[in-house]
Amino acid sequence: MTKASELQSMIDQDVGVSRWFDLDQARIDAFASLTEDEQFIHVDPERAKATPFGGTIAHGFLTLSLASAMSMEAVAPLDDLVMSVNYGFDRLRFLAPAPSGSRVRGRFKLLSAEDKGAGRWLLKHELTIEIDGGDKPALVAEWLTMHVVKA
Question: Contact, 89 vs 127, CB < 8 A?
Answer without folding.
Answer: no
